[in-house]
Design goal:
By secondary structure, the chain is mostly beta strands. The chain has no helices and ten strands. The chain is globular, with a radius of gyration of 13 Å.
């Protein structure tokens, strides 16, 4: 099974910015609604943002006006630009189709860790 690979996480101070990237191989990428999810220990994976093949986007209320999801259908890449980060954004971030059920990439990749701390 081909694997999703997320990258771009790291340690950032409150108010800082990061850009996450996700490589999702396979031609099916173009036809799927893709999403970023995040998960903290002991909690279920949370939907952060999604983007349809048309480019229509949706965001969780907690990240609206701070995060921007985008995609490059030529490169099979998904991105998440995050600004004005706060401690509540600390999590492991994953990308996959939305909904995840029946994803050609299974449960997705290993994720990328974002830590917001001074």
């Amino acid at each position: 099974q081909v694997q999703i690979v997320e990258s771009g996480g790291g340690l950032v101070q409150p108010g800082g910015s990061l850009r996450l990237s996700c490589a999702a191989p396979g031609p099916v990428f173009t036809y799927l609604t893709m999403a970023w999810y995040r998960q903290t220990p002991g909690n279920q994976r949370e939907l952060v943002a999604s983007i349809a093949p048309s480019g229509r986007t949706n965001y969780a209320d907690s990240v609206k006006d701070r995060f921007t999801i985008s995609r490059d259908n030529i490169k099979n890449m998904l991105y998440l630009q995050m600004v004005n980060l706060n401690s509540e954004d600390t999590a492991i971030y994953f990308c996959n189709k939305h909904p995840e059920l029946g994803s050609p990439w299974g449960a997705g990749g290993q994720g990328t860790r974002v830590t917001v701390s001074s």
